[in-house]
Design brief:
267 residues, alpha/beta, Rossmann fold, 4-stranded parallel beta sheet, two-stranded antiparallel ribbon
Length: 267
């Protein structure tokens, strides 16, 4: 099953070229490119976490979407820009330049086929800025190409209700949220007996600077954690993961609807 979590009728590579050539209203068909990474996620989670999240959210949202709205998912871009984690064995990383080139050339192929709406659904926190640059450059080059550089978690969801305040602020990698959703999506590859709790160490106190936020500093994972975990991996549960994923995918259904209806502002 090459489509994984994606509904087969929504999986772009299962179409033929004739299907694409004769597709009605092509300029409003929503094409979604899930983007993840292959990188360390502590001793208890597999390397594939971000790619699983991007694929699962895309697939579940498409499964819930009104069948009358034309939307298709491309195969997940599994390799991302993960050099902040490369000191941990198993991490596979592309440079920003390589990732940009791959995404741009893929997008130009979609454009040549006649499509005009492309969503990047990214689930790796180390590359939103790269994808935003790609989107802006594509739209500047092809002004009728509407490109949306989205991050999977920037939609309304239940995380704030289910996680501690400390976890919401600092549990950004292999903590409660990612452990919980992996227990929901792929429990067989989670090793809870190895889970640890480790929050970032050595952060500046009484400072406007932070790891992420409005005034971030550049950091490498090994500077902040020995285990590779930033958060409370022990706190994860399937029940929390189910609720988080349900809320996230419901929000993504609305996002896809909004993209389908979107028209580029023009003076």
């Amino acid at each position: 099953m090459m489509h994984n979590f994606i509904p087969p009728e929504r999986f772009f590579p299962y179409l033929t070229w004739q299907d694409i050539q004769t597709m009605p209203d092509q300029e409003n068909v929503v094409i979604i490119q899930p983007v993840g990474s292959i990188e360390q996620h502590g001793p208890h989670l597999p390397l594939i976490v971000d790619s699983v999240i991007a694929t699962y959210i895309t697939g579940q949202a498409l499964a819930k979407l009104d069948p009358k709205i034309p939307a298709y998912a491309l195969p997940t871009q599994y390799y991302g820009k993960s050099n902040e984690h490369w000191h941990f064995p198993g991490t596979i990383t592309l440079t920003a330049q390589t990732l940009m080139a791959v995404l741009i050339e893929m997008a130009e192929s979609i454009y040549r086929a006649g499509f005009r709406k492309l969503v990047f659904l990214n689930a790796h926190g180390g590359q939103p800025q790269v994808i935003e640059i790609v989107a802006r450059d594509l739209h500047q080059k092809y002004q009728d190409f509407l490109v949306f550089p989205f991050f999977a978690w920037r939609v309304p969801n239940a995380s704030g209700e289910l996680l501690s305040l400390k976890e919401v602020e600092l549990g950004i990698h292999a903590g409660d949220a990612e452990t919980s959703v992996m227990l929901s999506m792929l429990p067989d590859v989670v090793r809870m007996e190895r889970a640890v709790t480790e929050y970032p160490q050595g952060l500046p106190e009484d400072s406007m600077l932070s790891m992420e936020g409005r005034l971030p500093f550049a950091w490498l994972t090994r500077e902040l954690t020995r285990s590779g975990v930033l958060g409370d991996g022990k706190a994860g549960t399937k029940e929390k993961g189910d609720r988080i994923l349900e809320s996230v995918t419901d929000s993504w259904v609305q996002v896809i609807k909004d993209v389908y209806k979107f028209r580029q502002p023009s003076l």
